[in-house]
Design the sequence.
């Protein structure tokens, strides 16, 4: 039996900070810190650049060349422009951008897309324009622009895409870029004793190591970064290859950058740390295990499906296609697969408080695909949707209602706090997997509703040996016999992919679901009232697609309420 608990220490939100780090935190806000403390030898050139091995989106790159800004497939709206075009100065001073957009633009992760634009001459001009404007506006401290992980990502991206951003005869501009790279590395070095936990700390470390490898006078950065890397990989990359933030897309991007870092060590004839090699191998196994049948990621905890991100192709490119599937005991996911049917389920609690900024309240949700066709889904992540009409969609997309699972009294199983972090709710999950003669039964329970209503949610999913007969039980069970269990309404939601068609036979209490490839599946249930409702899907990058959801509704019946449902190929 696998048991997962949310770290109660991390969930307190309190983190010890030494007096030196506190003093540095105050000093960073002063011009003195940036003008004097980050001074050092001015590099006149780079010693090399990391190899660009992960192509971005051609479509997004073309849009950025035309003056737009793209993130998660969405175009950043500019109220001053009907075409949503941004001058460089306007972009870096844009008001009212949410945190996710600010992190995206200041990390310069969009350079990956710009580098794929067909018109490379204008791509270089646009890159130079945006970087020069950023230097004009953001050399002084900014809460996000100079946060350690963002600095790490920015210097990493500037190093990777040096051929794009510095292919110019303007020696003054080139000198300013090199100066900011060196200042960024010094900033990371000064902050290295206080890097954050989780993926953000690894992003900062990767930036520090790459700076030490490719920026002159960086021997100390390289030594410190490599030391931190070895320790962080043992802490942040779980035994099954997952990561503590529980965001599969963040896992993918970290994997890609760690592979790039491994190649960088070899490129400059440095020994690749064994910890790095082992982490990459474990992460490859995890990615292979949580990937859906279409080669893309499931929609858990902030994932946005990018068409250019193909997991199988990624693993093949780095000779990890034959990685064995992982036993997902630490990362909190489960894979149930037979024949063409594949279910991936979130059987874990949300990430620790400080790592939960992109987590969703979706414990016990699952996604079901049939071959390469997605069938039952979660709604996805709307954090890059930014306009007045849809300003509340981001929080809604993280709610329990937006996931294919059970919700009591319309209350999230885990609280989404006003600061965007995950608060009270699921703290413990336990799960057990049984396999016999090709049949699979997966059982899981969580305690997200115990404090409010004294109810546990148990979910059982059975799949037969052909994958053509799937049965489920959702059990609402009184947790403590010594405490009254409040009566509650429940809804069990099964969000459908926009490409499937659905028809309800109310007389027989059957839902007929037809997949694009021609298969028809029958959904039946017992123990609730069945209805078909509208839903919304954010799974395709840049699109908000209307879709449908099957909803099973009712009221708890005392100490134990059981709802049965099934999916069978017709």
Sequence:
């Amino acid at each position: 039996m696998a048991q997962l608990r949310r770290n109660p220490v991390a969930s307190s939100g309190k983190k010890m900070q030494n007096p030196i780090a506190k003093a540095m935190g105050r000093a960073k806000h002063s011009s003195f810190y940036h003008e004097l403390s980050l001074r050092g030898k001015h590099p006149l050139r780079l010693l090399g650049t990391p190899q660009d091995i992960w192509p971005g989106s051609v479509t997004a790159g073309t849009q950025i060349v035309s003056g737009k800004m793209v993130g998660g497939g969405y175009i950043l709206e500019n109220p001053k422009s009907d075409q949503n075009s941004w001058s460089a100065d306007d972009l870096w001073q844009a008001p009212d951008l949410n945190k996710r957009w600010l992190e995206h633009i200041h990390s310069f992760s969009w350079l990956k897309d710009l580098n794929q634009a067909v018109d490379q001459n204008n791509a270089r001009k646009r890159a130079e324009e945006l970087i020069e404007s950023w230097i004009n506006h953001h050399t002084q401290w900014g809460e996000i622009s100079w946060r350690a992980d963002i600095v790490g990502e920015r210097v990493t991206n500037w190093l990777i895409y040096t051929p794009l951003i510095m292919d110019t005869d303007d020696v003054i501009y080139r000198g300013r870029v090199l100066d900011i790279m060196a200042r960024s590395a010094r900033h990371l070095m000064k902050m290295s004793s206080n890097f954050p936990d989780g993926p953000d700390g690894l992003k900062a470390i990767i930036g520090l190591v790459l700076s030490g490898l490719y920026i002159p006078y960086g021997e100390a950065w390289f030594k410190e970064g490599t030391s931190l890397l070895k320790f962080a990989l043992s802490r942040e990359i779980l035994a099954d290859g997952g990561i503590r933030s529980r965001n599969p897309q963040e896992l993918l991007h970290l994997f890609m950058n760690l592979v790039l870092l491994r190649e960088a060590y070899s490129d400059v004839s440095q020994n690749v740390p064994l910890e790095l090699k082992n982490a990459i191998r474990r992460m490859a196994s995890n990615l292979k295990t949580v990937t859906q049948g279409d080669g893309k990621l499931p929609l858990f905890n902030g994932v946005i499906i990018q068409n250019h991100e193909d997991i199988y192709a990624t693993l093949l490119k780095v000779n990890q296609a034959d990685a064995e599937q992982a036993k997902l005991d630490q990362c909190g996911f489960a894979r149930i697969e037979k024949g063409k049917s594949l279910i991936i389920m979130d059987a874990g609690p949300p990430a620790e408080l400080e790592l939960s900024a992109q987590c969703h309240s979706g414990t016990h949700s699952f996604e079901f695909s049939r071959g390469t066709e997605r069938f039952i889904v979660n709604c996805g992540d709307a954090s890059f949707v930014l306009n007045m009409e849809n300003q509340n969609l981001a929080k809604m997309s993280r709610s329990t209602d937006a996931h294919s699972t059970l919700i009591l009294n319309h209350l999230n199983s885990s609280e989404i706090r006003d600061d965007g972090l995950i608060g009270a709710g699921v703290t413990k999950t336990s799960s057990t997997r049984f396999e016999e003669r090709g049949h699979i039964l997966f059982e899981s329970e969580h305690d997200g509703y115990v404090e409010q209503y004294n109810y546990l949610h148990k979910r059982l999913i059975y799949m037969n040996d052909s994958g053509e007969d799937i049965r489920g039980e959702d059990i609402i069970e009184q947790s403590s016999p010594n405490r009254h269990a409040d009566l509650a309404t429940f809804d069990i939601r099964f969000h459908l992919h926009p490409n499937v068609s659905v028809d309800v036979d109310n007389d027989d209490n059957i839902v007929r679901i037809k997949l694009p490839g021609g298969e028809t599946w029958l959904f039946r249930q017992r123990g609730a009232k069945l209805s078909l409702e509208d839903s919304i899907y954010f799974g395709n990058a840049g699109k908000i697609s209307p879709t449908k959801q099957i909803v099973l509704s009712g009221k708890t019946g005392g100490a134990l309420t059981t709802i049965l449902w099934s999916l069978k190929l017709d």
Q: What stands out?
A: The radius of gyration is 25 Å.
